[in-house]
Amino acid sequence: MQSFIDKFRYNAKRASLVQSRIKALERMGHVDEVVNDPDYKFEFPTPDDRPGPPIISFSDASFGYPGGPILFKNLNFGIDLDSRIAMVGPNGIGKSTILKLIAGELQPSSGTVFRSAKVRIAVFSQHHVDGLDLSSNPLLYMMRCFPGVPEQKLRAHLGSFGVTGNLALQPMYTLSGGQKSRVAFAKITFKKPHIILLDEPSNHLDLDAVEALIQGLVLFQGGILMVSHDEHLISGSVEELWVVSEGKATPFHGTFHDYKKMLQSR
Ligand SMILES: Nc1ncnc2c1ncn2[C@@H]1O[C@H](COP(=O)(O)OP(=O)(O)OP(=O)(O)O)[C@@H](O)[C@H]1O
Predict the structure, then answer these.
(1) DSSP class of residue 168?
(2) Atom of ligand 1 nearest to the CA of 65
(3) Measured between alpha carbons, how far is 116 from 44 in angstroms, rounded to an integer?
(4) What ipTM did this prediction achieve?
(5) What is the mean pLDDT of the chain?
(6) Phi, psi for residue 32 in degrees, rounded to 5
(7) 13-41: per-residue pLDDT in tens?
(8) Which end of the chain lies in a sparser environment, N or C, as judged by fewer CB atoms within 10 Å?
(9) Domain range summary for the chain, segments of one domain joined by +
(10) Which residues contact 257 (CB under 8 A, 6 or more apart)?
(11) pTM higher than the cut 0.90
């Protein structure tokens, strides 16, 4: 990464790529530990292009499920390739729903959610892990998802998430929850997304795997918006906290620890 920065530092065309790598190197200073075990590897691919702003913007977007109450009223915010945000808030308040509005799985009841035509968004959630074909194996699964892509390329990409050798050929039903999560990560990132939306990504990961996920996210050169209750993951991988409550998503000026203390003091 440093050699890329040195090589292209004075190249105007690559200025934004150089800047994002400088930022990633700065973030790396905050990573506790470098995990070398291939079992604990999360290498998110770097997108080849960086679409210009606006990337994603909500303008007076309101939403309620059909027949249900209004969950959000007049949401206004933007997300770009430098965003590193975690959304926190009580269960059932609508955090996952915001991710679905961003991804385009849901449409606002009123107002607009703009998404750049050039942006690639990947979504990780438990739903994607549960949706894996258990009778298949990781390599076959990837071959079915991306027909025509050379097997070697798919194997290499699975390898970026530690799914190597025999593991890539093992029936999916024999994989642990953490291993299945890594197959799901490989699937959603194959197209080199600019923005990754993560809904409780550390659910089935042990501590070392969470550490490796943090490292992967820190080095990722795109935007991140996650929903999580995992203090370690949040404090290691994002730079902004948004609190979702009372129909709004509001930036919180403090750490996750401060947020928890605030809740306790109420
Ligand atoms: N498909 C749906 N149809 C109707 N209501 C839904 C649907 N999905 C979610 N809800 C309701 O919308 C509200 C917000 O759900 P959402 O899953 O977005 O909350 P959340 O903050 O992500 O919660 P959690 O932290 O428990 O995952 C909840 O009351 C939920 O029951």
Answers:
(1) G
(2) 4
(3) 21
(4) 0.96
(5) 90
(6) -60, -50
(7) 666 666 766 666 666 655 545 445 556 78
(8) C
(9) 2-120+191-265
(10) 231, 235
(11) no
- Taking only the tens place, the pLDDT of each residue in 49-82 is 999 989 999 999 999 999 999 999 999 999 999 9
- CATH 3.40.50.11740: does it fit domain 2-120+191-265? no
**Euclidean distance between CA atoms 108 and 125, whole angstroms:** 21
- Residue type at 81 in one-letter notation: L
Nearest alpha carbon, ligand 1 atom 31: 92
Q: Which of 57, 19, 47, 59 is nearest to 189 (CA)?
A: 47
Measured CA to CA in angstroms, residue 15 lies from 6, 9, 47, 50, 251 at distances of 12, 7, 15, 11, 29
- Burial classification of residue 62, based on how many CB atoms lie within 10 Å of its CB (0-12 exposed, 13-18 middle, 19 or more buried): middle
Q: Does 137 contact ligand 1 (Cβ within 6 A)?
A: no
Q: Whose CA is nearest to atom 30 of ligand 1?
A: 92
What is the Cα gyration radius of the chain? 19
